[in-house]
Amino acid sequence: MTLLIDEACIKRLITMGDALSAVEEVFKAQAEGGVVNVPRLRVPLKGGTLRVTTGVLSYRGYYGVKISSTAIFGSTAGRLFCLYKEASGQLVAIVQVFAMGAMRTGAASGIASKYMSNPESSVLGVVGSGRQAETQVKAICAVRSIRQIQVFSPHPDRCRDFCQRLESQIGIPLQAVESAERAVRGAHIVVSATASEKPVVLGHWLSPGVHINAIGANFEHRRELDREAVLAAQCIGADDIEQVRYESADLFDPVNAGLLDWTQVHALSEIVSGRVVARRKQTDVTLFKSLGVAMEDVALAARAYEMALSLQEGVQLPNLAG
Length: 322
Prior knowledge:
By secondary structure, the chain is an alpha/beta fold. It contains eleven helices and 15 strands. It is globular, with a radius of gyration of 19 Å.
């Protein structure tokens, strides 16, 4: 039997707590060798890009493949994740991934913040006010006692709506501020969640001890951090070391300039497992470069599938076996 799990079903089934638990588990398992994550493949299309990601979670007995596209199909692009049982190859679920993708990206930053930020962090600065920014805020507030959130977006009306809506959901004050600098200055944790092609977080705005989650720039032409912000970090983590080498201009720009070495960039799995100590003193600056990787999708899809089975959610599809 194959289940179709649509957006509405995902939102009913998976809480941010579930996502955080699944993502933390998968990074711990990767450190022990129970996970294979295949870096994202990008294939040129006429007017766009085909993106393929895949991962194997042997410790859970699943593997999965996600197919998505950009630009050419605009907002109507289909993004589907196929979940399989590793032992039999059976296709057990087809999952719509817009909601799941935002949740897993937020959860990855939440886990990075749990292991890399100062435990007493209470001020969150956010640059961006889109769908990804929302799950970033919810995940970070779930792992740290955030008391104040300052948000900047170049779209003031959208930013105010974002703050009002989210404040009513999480019960923490959100303030729409007039600039990215105002959002970043004084923050203990900073999130950049944009599609910017030039830096939106500058190093001279950062406070001692800040932790940065840079999630938006995963194309070579996009940048969210200037060199100073990257080089300020005593520890840099990424969700996939191989993928970050060709998707993160934030990092390969200073590497190409001879100012940073790839050996200074650590897998988040190594940080979560305790093999790499992210923060040695309170004033250290730390950076998590998020890409959004396949193993996170498999972890959440498996969690959603098992919950759907137990709660009799989802739509049963005909036998799809060849």
